[in-house]
Every structure is written in structure tokens, then in C-alpha cells.
Amino acid sequence: MFHLPTVQFTQEQEQFRLDVRTFLQDELAKGTFTSKCDSWLSGDDPEFSKLIGQKGWIGLTWPKKYGGQERSTIDRYILTEEFLAVGAPVAAHWFADRQTGPLLLRYGTEEQREYFLPKIVKGECYFGIGLSEPNSGSDLASVSTRAEKVEGGWLVNGQKIWTSNAHLCHYMVTLVRTSAFDGKNKHAGLSQLIVDLHAEGVTVVPIKFLTGEHHYNEVFFDNVFVPDNMVVGEIGNGWAQGLAELAFERSGPERILSTFPLIDELIQELKRQNNLEGLKQASKIVARLWSLRNLSIGVAQLLETGNSEDVSIPAALVKAFGTKFEQSIPEITRLIIQTYPTLDAHRKIDRFMAESILHAPGFTIRGGTSEVLYGVVAKGVIAQ
Amino acid sequence: MSEMKDMIVDVVERMLKEKVDKDLVDTVEQGNWAPELWDLFKENGMTAVAITEENGGAGGDIEDLLNIVRLTGKYAAPIPFAETTFANYLLEFTSLQVIEDLATYMLCPNQAFTLENGKLTGEAIQIPWARHTKHLVTLAHSLEGTHLVEIDLSQAEIKHGTNLAGEPRDTAIFHHANVSQVSAVLSPDKMHAITTLNTAFQLALMTGAIDKINDLTVQYTKEREQFGRPIHRFQLVQQHIVHLAGETAIALAAFNNVTEALQMNKQNSEVAYARIRFEEIIQTVTTIAHQVHAAIGTTHEHSLHQFTRRLWSWRDEGASTSSWTNLVATQLLENSGDSLWGYLTSFSSSSPLLKVEG
């Protein structure tokens, strides 16, 4: 069984949590932003991202020489929790902060780090994650976007899909095939390139989400030139590099707290109604949240101290169980309290309900479907 | 846990692995006693863990003790280890004298025992292991309030009973019996602390059994073949494995967080959350384990039931889930802060329900 460490936050960390909370409450009061469910995907606000950047809260764990604060993974965990708990619009810089920065720190060239990281930290440079393709779904090894070697760089042709916020992003870390597909070794011949989304030959086409909002995109590449210095890590090593990011991507508080603003508002409503019976039912939600959070923080602590390969299985578990939990929140809520879900509702709980119901189907899909994660976890458990 | 603590856990686990098997559990279930196993625990000083040295304790703390209790749950060790150690923990917690012999406890939900002029009268059911133990630590009600008392069970009329798992759950009837020790009147805070500690001991036992059920089930899916391959190769079985492993991981993490909170005296509502969550865990884990084991798991020959029957019994003993649910709901209602997040992440010592003294 997985032996995950427990974490007791230090006084400094508790203080940091309060500082972040106070800042967010102040900005909320000023009207800088509106709370929203699933704000890490659908709450994109470049002005807010710049504000966060000014606070030094992007790239919190990164080296100071690139503009980071060299703080711990646990500090970043706390920061992330506070953003999500209040539903702050962090989507613009989210992927660059969570994935691209760590990827470049691990595999990037010094030139790439010096060029990109300080911009990301300021909240002025956003990255998309270019993995999925039409028909690839969870079978990422079937990626067929090609990059052909040419003088001084690579020529990219193909198409990515489901790229969150590509229309706002400046760049995309794109998984491409740099040598012919080998049926016996499907994971070979893949590489990661940084594609400038404003380069010639790139077309970004919106795919509207079922709410009518624009988060996802299709991205087409037609003879897009990517210079050699935009190759991340080694040519042919793209699969292994991509895998290393997954534990960070899967185990964070964003896999538990996407619908937290709704839970919070449910409790407030029940308190206003003096509804003890409703609160008893809600206490089960609190217990589930607490128990999942233990697991998620345990993985964060392992990432801080250990080898990220050791945590890929519990990280997959956190993602599978956490997203199932956040997905269940609107369904539980509507049985406890009467709501009228509408996206443009005046009453907060009605709006949070609408956002949660309509966004929930995606939770157990994005970042690895539950079915694929179950396979990862089952194999890991059997191998133990 | 420190390295030394890990060592204690290793030693106890080895001891249990070697000494406890299905036959021993079966034998005790038929009403016998396991003297060798008890003596082994006693001689190794395990029954004195977490008792202070001035009271003859063996050192170690509540986290060590709860981890040993967890292991007795993992091996279904058929001895009143949790009962004896918790009885002593309660005695020390209420500034009474700890005792050396076998002991048990009963925290009656209703006012079963009355205390008048140092004499105890009343009847309580479901007392664990009463027939095999000498001392009973229980609550008694006087005109002043509720006290913790210690009383010699030889003065009681004992009627045998068992829980679903065949563990002794006896009735004890006292008529004007002499109590050996009486605590001062217990404040509501202290009563709450006692209930919380009791639930923490139960959580330890349950965590052990859950862990074992997971091990047995995963192992079984590797050994059992159907349609020409081990059943873990079937995707639908894999789904069962994932849910079982997930609930087990959640139980272990919850238990670790509970013990650490108790240890650091930062206990807030962890025990309540864990106890509420364990209700779902037990239901899921026992259902999946039996489904995966299929017919063989429903037989007495297989050991699975020694753990699932224990969980089905233990979940109904002690403070009920509904009482913990009620407590969290009341706390949410009265929580002065205006956000749930603030309540969940609060760390100030002023909010806790429980301050474990010492």
C-alpha cells in the first residue's frame, strides 16, 4: 500500500496562507475578480495574472535567478489551495506555472530558462499544453503531428486539439513525432518543441465548451518553422519527459477543489437557514474533502523530497478519486438544498451550481481519463 | 514516526505474523483464551506503551500505541490489547492509578452505572472481553456528575455475549459493588476528549483490518485464474482493485493524520472527519473484497471474514457515526468565521474541541 507522509504546516506556512487569503479577500472586495467554480480552467484574466506575478506568486518554487522565490512545494500547495478555494481567475498563467516552468527547469536549456522563466513569473507569458490530437484521445502514443529536420530547425505539420486557452497563450509545448512511427516501440521518436503560437503557419480555432464559453481550441500547423533552440530536452525523449510532468499535473489541489466555491456557498446557505439536518449531510462532504486532501498533500510532500517516479501511482489515484469527488458536489448539493442553476444568476449558489453542473463532465476526462488512471493504479497495485 | 518507532512497529508486526493465524482466531472465537499471545505482548512491554515512566510505563507515546493497536487489527489478534491499553490510558488521563492486569472498558452511552457512597450499581451490555479481564474502567453517575471509575470485575455477574465477529461482548451486572478508584467529576470537555480518544483507538483497529482486507484481496486476484488468466487481468476486476486500494490509501492517510494530530496536541476535528469517512470506507471495502473473492470468501474456511466481520461489528461500537456527524454539523453552524475554507484550515489552538492535556 502507498505510504504517504503526513504534513504539519509550520507557523511560517500558516502565516503565508493567511497573507494570501487576506490579499484575495481584499481583491475580491475591491471587485478585481468574481469567484467562480473551475476557475483554474475557465477563469482567465491576464490582468489578474500580472497582479499575481507582481506578488511573486508565480513560479514560487523556482530558482531566484529566474525570478522565482525558491520556496517549497508545500508553500506552493498552500498558495494553490487559497486561489482555488476562493475561485480566483488563475487560468491564464496556470499551465506555464504548473507544467512548463518545471519542464524547462528539468530539461530545458539555459537559454530557454533565461528567456522564458522570468516572463512567466511576471504573469506575462502563457503556455499551452500540446498533447492531444484528433482521434488520439487517451492514446497519446498515437500522436502524428510531425516535425521534419531542416536547416537550423524543424518544420512542423499537423494538428493538436483540446488545447486549453491556446487563444490566449504565447507558446505551446508541443509533442511531435520526429521519426517514423514504430509499431513495436510506440513511445519512441517523440519530441517536445516550443512552438510560437503567433508564428507563420499556426492557426488557432476555437472549440466552444458546452456552456458556450471558449476554453478549448484546435491548433493547426502548416509548415511552421521551429528553430533548433526551441527543442526541449532531447530529440526522441519526449515521451519520458512528458511522463515526468504527470505527477505534478495529477495530484494537485485542482483535482479536488474545482467545485469548492459551491461547497462553501452551500454551507453558508445552510447556516443562514439554521439548517442542522442539511449540515449533517454536508458534513460527509467535509469528511471526504479532508481525507482526499490528506492524500494530495502527502503526494506533494513526496514530490518535494522524493523521486517523482515513485509517486506516479498515488498521483493517478488522487486524480481519479479527487475528480470523482469534485464531480459529485453539484449532485449532492441539489439534494440538500433547493437551487435554480443559471449561469447568469444573481444568487451565488445558483451560479456556482450552474458552473459546477456544466463543467463537471470534464473533470474526470482532462489530464487523463479515469479509465486510463484506473489502469495505471491497478497495474501499480498488482506490481507491489 | 521516528526510526525507533518504525522499529517497534516492525517488531510487533513480526510477532503477530508469527503467532497469529486463522486457527488461533477460530479457537478464541469458540470461547477460548490465547494465553501465549497475551503473555508475549505483556512480556515485551507492549501493554505499557504510552504510559508515563513515573506510572511504570515503557515509554513511547500515543502514536506508537495507536500503531501497535492498528497492527492488532491487521492480524485480528484475539486478545484485549486495545481494551487493556485504552483502559490504562483513560486512567492516566483522569489522574488515576494505572493497573497491570488485563483490563477492559465501557463508555456507556446511557447512564448504566450509578455511584453512591463509593458503591456501583447497574448493568452494562457489550463490554469487550469482560469474561477474561479483571478490571473494568467505566463511567459512573453520581449526584455530582459523571466520573471515571475502576472496578474489579470479579464482583460482577457476567453474562456471555459475542459480536458479529465472535469477539466477547459480555454483560456485567453490579449490585452495590466496591469501586477501586474514582476520578473527579468529568467536565464536558474531558468527556469529549475521552470519546475522541476512544474513537481514535477504534480507528486504529479498523485501519489495520482494512489494510489486511486490501492485501488479501489483491493477492487473491493474482492467484485466482478464470478463463485462462489471473483475474487481475480483467478490467472490471481492476476497477474493483482501484477502488479498494484507493479507500485503503485514504484510510491509512486519515489514520496517520489523526495520530499525528493527537501527538502534536493540535487535534481539532480530525477524529470526527475520519470516523465519518470510515463509514463509507468500510462499506466499500467489505463489499468489494467479498465480491472479488466470490464464493470462497463467503466460507468459514477462508480468513477474509475474520476481518470483514470485525469491521461490521466495530463500526457499530463506541460513539456512533451519527453523533460525529451531528457534532461536525453543529460545529459548522456555530463556526464564527464565515468561510468553510477558513474552518477547514484553521490551526489556532482556540478552536479545537479537544485539548489533550499532558
TrEMBL record, chain A:
Transmembrane segments: none annotated. Keywords: Oxidoreductase. Residues 129-224 form the Acyl-CoA oxidase/dehydrogenase middle domain. InterPro entries: Acyl-CoA_DH_CS, Acyl-CoA_Oxase/DH_mid-dom, Acyl-CoA_Oxase/DH_mid-dom_sf, AcylCoA_DH/ox_N, AcylCoA_DH/ox_N_sf, AcylCoA_DH/oxidase_NM_dom_sf, Mycobact_Acyl-CoA_DH. Signal peptide: none annotated. It comes from the Bacteria. The keyword Oxidoreductase applies. Residues 10-124 form the Acyl-CoA dehydrogenase/oxidase N-terminal domain. The keyword Oxidoreductase applies. Gene3D superfamilies: Acyl-CoA dehydrogenase/oxidase, N-terminal domain, Butyryl-CoA Dehydrogenase, subunit A, domain 2, Butyryl-CoA Dehydrogenase, subunit A, domain 3. It holds the Pfam family Acyl-CoA_dh_M. PANTHER family: ACYL-COA DEHYDROGENASE (PTHR43292), ACYL-COA DEHYDROGENASE FADE34 (PTHR43292:SF4). This is Acyl-CoA dehydrogenase family protein. It comes from Lysinibacillus agricola. The lineage of its organism: Bacteria, Bacillati, Bacillota, Bacilli, Bacillales.
From TrEMBL, chain B:
Residues 3-93 form the Acyl-CoA dehydrogenase/oxidase N-terminal domain. Transmembrane segments: none annotated. Signal peptide: none annotated. The keyword Transit peptide does not apply. InterPro entries: AcylCo_DH-like_C, AcylCo_DH/oxidase_C, AcylCoA_DH/ox_N, AcylCoA_DH/ox_N_sf, AcylCoA_DH/oxidase_NM_dom_sf. The keyword Cytoplasm does not apply. It holds the Pfam family Acyl-CoA_dh_1. It comes from the Bacteria. Its cofactor is FAD. Residues 204-310 form the Acyl-CoA dehydrogenase/oxidase C-terminal domain. Keywords: FAD, Flavoprotein, Oxidoreductase. Belongs to the acyl-CoA dehydrogenase family. This is Acyl-CoA/acyl-ACP dehydrogenase.
